[in-house]
Amino acid sequence: MAEHEPSGHRFMDLEVPEYAYMFGFLQADGHLYQGPGQKGRLSVELNIRDIDLLYRFKQLTPYNSSVTEHTRSTNFSQDAHSAVWTLCSLEARKRINTLGIPYGRKSETIAPPNGLEFSQRDYLRGVIDADGSIGFTSQDFPFVSLTTSSTALGSFLCGYACRLTGAERIQKRNARDQVYNIMYTKEAAQALAADLYYPGCLSLGRKQVKADSLRSWIRPARMRVAPARWPWTPEEDQALLRIDDAAVAAEQLGRSKQSCYMRLWRLRTGRVPTPTGL
């Protein structure tokens, strides 16, 4: 057993917060390579400033693994200094692969663990530490964002954040590079950051500091607060699907056409559950 492996838990037991975080981070920023025969490796390369996280991964892993430092020239620097955590164990790789990290390219196919209990906020924090951003916008508004090619991952964030904060986001790939850019700002960002980056959690130190700094923001007195949302009932969802026309439904349900259009789109695409009895 590794020095700091959670006692009594199997490697990558995703109900353990540290492993859920580690798995989310590895899904987003790790690379699983298939070599000849049974050879292969899992690796993560980070800027040298984040080397402490790689040592935590090493401590959490009850198999031989290593953290090494590299310096090389890139398009951005003549002497880029990075650190790499590498795990070669076949048993460990099989476990990680089974949980949902494929060999080779994976950006569009990764998804939250299916059919397994897992610590959702820790998993999501790992994903955001790897592929997201947190801080203040140019207008000095708190924000939390995620850039991903995975539809499943984007949907998971949207659903989690909506349940937590009430903020809804429409998931749409951007035209330039076909990725999802999902962002939360102001109070929604504060609530999401406070939930994900709780005291004592495993995280990138620099992003933990940024998450903590979001708490200091106070909405300016003259800034308008968006009105509270009017939740949809199962009966309204049934009526909306039966009418199947946003304009007609708006008149009958007393809602705006845009609201009916968006709700109908969410129901049709499975972003919200279809009401029973249909």
Report what the structure shows.
This protein has 278 residues and is of the alpha+beta class. The chain has helices spanning 17-29, 51-60, 90-99, 120-131, 151-165, 186-196, 205-213, 234-243, 246-253, 257-269, and strands spanning 31-34, 40-47, 65-72, 80-87, 132-136, 142-148, 180-185. The strands form two sheets. Strands 1-2-4-3 form a four-stranded antiparallel sheet. The protein has a three-stranded antiparallel sheet with strand order 5-6-7. Strand 5 and strand 6 form a beta hairpin. Helix 8 (234-243) crosses helix 9.
Report helical residue fraction.
25-40%
Overall pLDDT, averaged? 89
Shape: globular
- Percentage of residues in DSSP E strands: 15-25%
How many angstroms separate the termini? 52 Å
Which terms would index this structure?
single chain; about 280 residues; alpha+beta; four-stranded antiparallel β-sheet; three-stranded antiparallel β-sheet
In short:
This protein is of the alpha+beta class and 278 residues long.
Topology:
Layout lengths: L16 H13 L1 E4 L5 E8 L3 H10 L4 E8 L7 E8 L2 H10 L20 H12 E5 L5 E7 L2 H15 L14 E6 H11 L8 H9 L20 H10 L2 H8 L3 H13 L9
Antiparallel strand pairs: 1-2, 2-4, 3-4, 5-6, 6-7
Helix pairs in contact: 1-4, 8-9, 9-10
